[in-house]
Structure formats: structure tokens, C-alpha cells
From TrEMBL, chains A, B:
Pfam families listed in its UniProt record: TetR_C_6, TetR_N
Domain HTH tetR-type residues, every copy: 3-63
Matching PANTHER family: HTH-TYPE TRANSCRIPTIONAL REGULATOR BETI, HTH-TYPE TRANSCRIPTIONAL REGULATOR RUTR
Keywords, sorted A to Z: DNA-binding, Repressor, Transcription, Transcription regulation
Protein name: Transcriptional regulator, TetR family
Amino acid sequence: MDTETTDTIIRATGRSLCEYGYADLTMQRIAAESSVTTAAIHYHFDTKEELLNAFLDDLVDRFEQQVSCESSDPRQQLTTLLDAVFSPPKSSSDEFPVALMELKSQAPYHDTYRDRFHELDDTVRTVVTTAVEEGIESGYFADVDAEEIARFVSTAINGGHVRMVALGEEPAKTRNVVEDYLEGQLDWRPEERA
Amino acid sequence: MDTETTDTIIRATGRSLCEYGYADLTMQRIAAESSVTTAAIHYHFDTKEELLNAFLDDLVDRFEQQVSCESSDPRQQLTTLLDAVFSPPKSSSDEFPVALMELKSQAPYHDTYRDRFHELDDTVRTVVTTAVEEGIESGYFADVDAEEIARFVSTAINGGHVRMVALGEEPAKTRNVVEDYLEGQLDWRPEERA
């Protein structure tokens, strides 16, 4: 498959999803958003579901890259995760969290979307579990149940996403909730607030 | 306004929303779900937005009734809230959480929906804040920041809602997260697990 073309299509899918929403997303609109013809999009992706699977795969890949932290310091690993979740790149559209929430609402009807959301969730939980376990081992953190901490953090991240979309709340509010929790549980202080 | 008719329309709106989803919800479908004609629905509600406002108002009212607890025991007040959120009545549709998530995705485009979601959130946070403050005063709970606890609980409840829809996860998992947190913070033990 021609990577450059599929990349172009995937980017245009993201923009169209933000602009028109899930219900009004069509191959025609994606073509209009890009330099690619409707025929070419159909050549690469049979259905809207396939196209959105590719879009979500790309999202999962980029998220995994963002949270993969070169530092061996488990405190820095947690900060990198919180930055990736709560401070998305400025280039991303304001509507992106809404588009993502719409796709989450579609998950009950599309197992393939649901699989990708499980991948995202597994990524968050693995990063937290690994960092907490390493932090306990190296004496940075109090001795806690790392998987329980990870479940809390992932649930709060999901909650922050809904609150941003449904209530228009700043993601920083949820970041504070998570940081206060980690501070209390792990005896960890986020650097910027130390 | 004829309360019985509007009640019938609001119930039919809920069923149609669960069955067809937000994008495909029409006055015709709501009429087909009920004994009320399309003309009668238009007579009571000018637009789909007005109808969904009434649906959300009804939801807020019923939720407020569910969480209003006759017991003066703050521990029971928290249990009543968690029951209302995590153990909805058996009569409610499996699709209801999905329909509600779709409406949350629409909040950025409809301030009137957003206002109702703020009301729901305020209700949750007021119940928690009040119960925690009373529990501290009466010596049941440790001395904590009640509003901080309330923010945590509401964020986790929102997170549990997304996890149920996007991941197909049992709400009981999130209830455990909340209960463990309250247990740790307040020194409160949920009755059924004591």
C-alpha cells in the first residue's frame, strides 16, 4: 500500500471527522479535504469503518510514541504520560476530543473500534503500572498496588475526556485530580508544582 | 401543557434515542414509538433540541429523586448515590448509556444540553460534598477536603460511563475504584463489603 497516500487520507479523515462529525462523514467529504480522489480512497479503504480503523490505528501509534519516555526515572515517565493526555499538541483541532468521543459512542456497534480503544487503555495502564512498579523498586514511591493505581488513572483520564466535551471543562482540572491522587498514594510530587 | 402527553413524548424520545441514535432521531420515529401523532409532538416541541432539552430535564429530575436519601447517615447517602449511578433500574435499556454519551458528544454544539449536564454534575458533587461534610462533623469520616473528594467522585463516575460505552466494561469496576478511594480517604467502608 502507498504509505504517503494512505497517510494523506488518514489526516483528511481526522480533519473531516472534526469538521462534520461522525454521522456526516463521507468519502466525498474526505476527498474534498485532501488531494486524493474519492476513487482513490475507495481503492485503499472499502468502507467507512475500515477507514476509521486506520485512523484509530494511527492514533494509537502516535499516542504510544508520545508516551514512550526515554528517561529511566519513573516520575518522569508519569509526567510524560500526563503531558501527552492533558496537554495535546497545539496543532490538534479543538474539535478533536469531540470527534473522539463520537467514535467512543460508536464502539458498541463496531467491535473493531472497541478493540482500538482497548489498545489505548492498555497503553495507559501499562505505562502507569510499569512506572509505579519501577518507582517502588527504586524507592521513589510508597509500596502500593500498581495495577490499582493504573486503573484509577485510566478511569480519571476517561472522565476528564467526557468533562471536557460535555461540560467544556479545562483538562487541567482533571490533571490536578490525578496529580493529587498520585501525590497521596505514591508520595510523588509533580515537578512543576514541587 | 398537557403533562400526560408530554410525558408520553419524553418516554418515546428516550426509547427512540436508544433505538436509532442521535443522528437518526426524528419526530416521525418518536411518533411511531408512541400513541402521539407527529403533529402533536410538533405542537408541544418546536425543535428536536427542545424535545431533547425536555428529555434531559426529566433525566435530571429523576436522578435528583434517586439520590435524595431519607437517611441522615452520610454513609448511607453516599451508598444511595453510588447505587443510583452504578446500578440503574433493570427497566432501563442497555442502550441508554450509549444514547446519553451521544448527547454528551453533542453538548459542544448545544449550550442547552451542556447546561443540563452541568446540573447533573452539580447534583453529584453536592450530594458528595454534603455527605462528606456531615460525616466529618459527626465523626464518621476523617477530616478531608470535601470538595476535592466530590470532584474525584464525579470525574470517576464520568470515566466509568465512557468505559462502559467505549470498552464494554462493567460499571462495577468503576464502583470499586470509587469505593476504594472513599475507603482510603474517609475511612468509610461500603456496607456490602464490610
